Structures are given as C-alpha cells and as structure tokens.
Amino acid sequence: MNTQQIIELTDNNILGTYPRFPVAFTSGKGATLRDADGKEYIDLASGLGVNSIGCANPAWINAVTEQAAKLAHVSNLYYTEPMARLAEQLTQRAGMSAVFFANSGAEANEGLIKLARKYSYEQFGSHNRHMILSLQNSFHGRTITALEATGQEKFHGYDFFPYTGGFKYVQPGSVDAVKAACSDGSVCAVLIELIQGEGGVYPLPKDYVQRLAEFCNENDILLLVDEVQTGIGRTGTLFAFQQYGIAPDAISFAKGIGGGLPLGGFLVSDKVRGILRTGDHGSTFGGNPICCAGALAVLNILSDVQLAEVTRKGEKIRRTILSWNSPHIAEIRGFGLMLGIELSGLSPRDTAAKLLEDGAVTLTAGTNTLRLLPPLTITDTELERGLGLIKQALR
Ligand SMILES: *Cc1c(COP(=O)(O)O)cnc(C)c1O
Question: In the chain, which stretches have pLDDT less than 50?
Fold first, then answer.
C-alpha cells in the first residue's frame, strides 16, 4: 500500500483521537526511518521516547524472535525465565528492592497510586490519609486516574467526569507549597517527573528535589517518581533519579524499556516491598516473555558506555543548537537525550510538520517547545544530518 491508501484505510476505520501527520512508516534501521513511498527520515523522536535502541537492532531481533518461537505468553500464575532475569537486571541497576510488570506508563502509575494508599492505610490505620500530591504541568497518563494525577487543567476539562478523586496539585519548585498542601495530614505520597516531558521538557531543580525528598522522608510521605519518559537511559543514567542524589520509595517506567514492545512497571524500595501482596494487584499481559526478552536485550545494549554516550550526544546537540544564535530559539532545556527547544515566533506543530517534510521526525511539548527524544544509539552522522535539518527549519 502507498501512503495515501494507508491513510484512507486508517481514517475510515480508526477513531480520530490522534493529530496524525500524513506519513505512514514502513521500516527503519537505527535512527533512520522509511515511509510507504520510500522517503527516508532521521528519527529524533523514537516514536514517543520508545525506540531507545533505534530500529531493527540485530541483538534485539534475535532475542525477540527466539523467544517468540519458544513461548509467547503464559499467565502470571506461572514463572518464566525472561521475566525473572529482567527483574534482576532492573532491581540491581536501579538499586531497588523488587519490581511489578505492567504494560504501559499510565498503568504503571496506577500501581504507584495503589501502593501509596495501601502503605498509608497500613502505616497510619486511617483511610483519610489518602491524597496524592502531584505537580502542576505534569503528565502521568490517560486512564481516568492517571488523567487526574496529571496537573494540567486541559486534561481535566474533558467530558469525562467524574474523575476518581484523591489528588492535589502544587507549583513545581517550592517545598513550602508542598508543606502547606500536606499540613492537614491528608497526603500519603508526592508524585513527580524529574523532567516534565509532555509539559514542555522542564527539569526540576536538584536542590528542590532533594529538599522535597527530605521533607517526604521526615513525614513518612512516599516519594513516587514517574520515570516513564526519563527512564531507561534517556537522561544518561538508567533512571534520572540516579543523578538527583535521592532514593525514591517507588518509580514507574515504560516507554523505552521494551525497544518498541509494550512493557511497563514499577520498582519499589525495601521500605514498601511488603505492601502489595498476593491478590492485591495484577495484569494479564504484564511481564510478557517476548517483551521481557526484548527488554533484556535493550538493557544489555544500554551499557554504562552507551549511557555515557547519551550524555555526550545530548551536550553536542545543545552546543550545536546554541552556536546557531537563531532568533527563533528562546531556550534549550533538559539533559541527556531528552531536550526541549523553546521556540520564539514559530509554532512547534508547524515546525515539526516542516521538519517532517524535510526528512526529520521530531516532537512537540507544552505550548511552545520542539522536543527531541532521539534513539539513544543514534550515530553522530545521523545526529548531524538531523541537526542540519533543524538549523534550516529555524532559519
Ligand atoms: C507517556 C507518559 C505516560 C503515559 O504512558 P502510556 O504508556 O502512554 O500510558 C506517563 N507518564 C509520563 C511521564 C509519560 O511521559
């Protein structure tokens, strides 16, 4: 099928919930994508931060196809080796105690919320201490509870009332605001993204996060970190919290872990390990053997050496873009390969559309920001081609 045929078939049969660009991709290799008409693109988006090791990595293909030929699924009433091995890798490299596997980011965050409430009830013996504090401008997913956790009015203004309740929001950056929101004793957990991704690529300041962590620890309020976008090497360490000098009680992950396959979950610390017990939580597909085999290949590829490269390439992008002195660039935010270019006098959506025409796939974020989430394994040649196209578009 050519692009036009795929678009027509899609629009005739699929709900129009996405603002799709008129491109249909058919294949990829590394950070280079190809569409149904044979045109090539440099990938600076990784899907939506998903294709952490690019497309068609041979080790990943082997791991996934071998597992698919052996066993594609078994219920969580039984054990499988890929799931066990992946759990060991994740807990060891994150320095956490145990993991729960789900399928997506929103679902992973739902798990964090259940964990926090049950911990609070068991620890304090009262069901009044159930509120989760999240930050304004955050994004935590599209299920009805994750939407409510999301601290942006535009996600609450939809026609989906009633939401599930139990959330409060504060402005990021002020520990005093957190203290005030917690002063009535109703808050059981604080949920944060260390770089607000969808909200516009805003990193939280390190000293703020450390003081927030201290406050939470002193008051037995759980610190939950949503690493769905920042995790799995995106910021130059396996998880972003490892650069913040904090020890969260639990973190969620998803996007980058499966190398394109749907997998998510959450990691917990020793302190809360015993909270979710037999029957408290579950998922039919969570920890699927094919997804776990793919994820093991991803973690294997994202060695410490590769992660150091993420930091180097991120700095290279920042240096290069700043050197253009473009009047259309207000600011560059983020670190590692999670970067936001705040535009001045240009629409992010129009800029992304123009870049796509020119042969580069990018993302937008917030109201005025072009977002770059290239595959972590992008080569310098691919990166330079992509940057060349951005330079042209921002002239
Ligand atoms: C994408 C994202 C989610 C939602 O993940 P899904 O897999 O789409 O449910 C949650 N939190 C953050 C920070 C995200 O970037």
Answer: none
**Residue 110 near ligand 1, beta carbon < 6 Å:** no
Phi/psi of residue 258, nearest 5 degrees:
-90, 0
Tens digit of pLDDT for each residue in 264-297? 999 999 999 999 999 999 999 999 999 999 999 9
- Give the CA dihedral 135, 137, 142, 148, nearest 10 degrees: 50
Domain 3-56+303-393 sits in CATH at: 3.90.1150.10
Nearest to 249, CA basis, from 158, 105, 113: 113
Strand order in the sheet with 32-35: 25-29, 32-35, 40-43, 360-361
CATH of domain 71-301: 3.40.640.10
Domain extent listing, the chain = 3-56+303-393, 71-301
**Burial class of residue 259, CB neighbours in 10 A (0-12, 13-18, 19+):** buried
Query: Is the minimum distance from the CB of 342 to ligand 1 under 6 angstroms?
Result: no
* Strand pairing report for 360-361 and 264-268: unpaired
Rounded distance between C-alpha atoms, residue 392 and residue 362, angstroms: 14
Task: Tell me whether the CATH fold assigned to 3-56+303-393 matches the one assigned to 71-301.
Answer: no
Angle (nearest 5°) at CA 365 between 181 and 296: 90
3-state secondary structure of 116: helix
Per-residue pLDDT of 1-50, as tens digits, reads: 999 999 999 999 999 999 999 999 999 999 999 999 999 999 999 999 99
pTM beyond 0.85: the answer is: yes
Question: Which ligand 1 atom sits nearest the alpha carbon of residue 107?
Answer: 9
Q: How far is the CA of 149 from the centre of ligand 1 (A)?
A: 12
226 within ligand 1 shell (Cβ under 6 A) = yes
DSSP state of 189: E
Provide the 3-class DSSP secondary structure of residue 196: strand
pLDDT for position 126: 86
Q: Are strands 264-268 and 98-102 parallel, antiparallel or unpaired?
A: antiparallel
| Distance (Å, whole) CA 145 – CA 159 | 14
